[in-house]
Write a structure and sequence with these properties.
globular; 1 helix; mainly beta; single chain; five-stranded mixed beta sheet; about 5% helix
């Protein structure tokens, strides 16, 4: 497809764009486009399914998007919990980590954690700030000093609890939502 001006594109019909989905998108202002364009319009989000029974998992830029933990309809982490490591901070990284199981087992080893680090290793580094909103009596918390560990708490987290993380290149900004008081913590 040849370079077109905005005025020219506005005069054309959608039928004339049948080949755009298979074409490269070049922005004349030097901008970039990321993600996957859906053929019916809009952008398609990447989904990474982690399930249950995993050991420590290092997220990468390729995992950006939605990350599900647990299994729908099945109690999660019956024998042990697990940890998810965020990658080295880079501007534009984004993850929405959603718990999809009905519950996390009621044993002290069952918690599911998300750890920030500065070097793609399991060495924790205080890089997360943000707020968590609860539906119960405690009504959540705003964490203004940096922390390194998000916990989906055993015997409290339920389906739909989530944390969304955006990276500004240095730190992770978190926004979390949970149903049962203290089901999601940032420390």
């Amino acid at each position: 497809m040849a370079l077109q001006t905005a005025a020219t594109l506005k005069r054309k019909t959608s039928r004339q764009y049948h080949n755009v989905i298979d074409s490269n998108l070049n922005l004349t202002d030097g901008g970039t486009v990321t993600g996957i364009l859906h053929p019916d319009g809009g952008q398609k989000c990447n989904i990474t399914v982690l399930g249950d029974g995993i050991s420590t998992r290092q997220l990468t830029a390729a995992d950006c998007g939605i990350v599900t933990i647990g299994v729908v309809g099945t109690e999660t982490a019956v024998s042990k919990g697990f940890n998810i490591d965020l990658p080295t901070p880079a501007a534009g990284l984004w993850y929405k980590i959603i718990f999809v199981g009905p519950s996390i087992a009621n044993n002290s080893n069952a918690a599911i954690t998300v750890t920030s680090n500065s070097d793609d290793s399991s060495t924790a580094a205080n890089l997360i700030v943000g707020s968590f909103l609860g539906s119960g009596d405690d009504q959540g918390a705003n964490v203004t000093s940096v922390a390194d560990l998000i916990t989906f708490v055993h015997a409290k987290a339920t389906a739909g609890d989530f944390v969304e993380l955006w990276c500004d290149g240095t730190n992770w900004i978190a926004e979390g939502r949970y149903d049962v008081d203290a089901a999601l913590t940032l420390a």
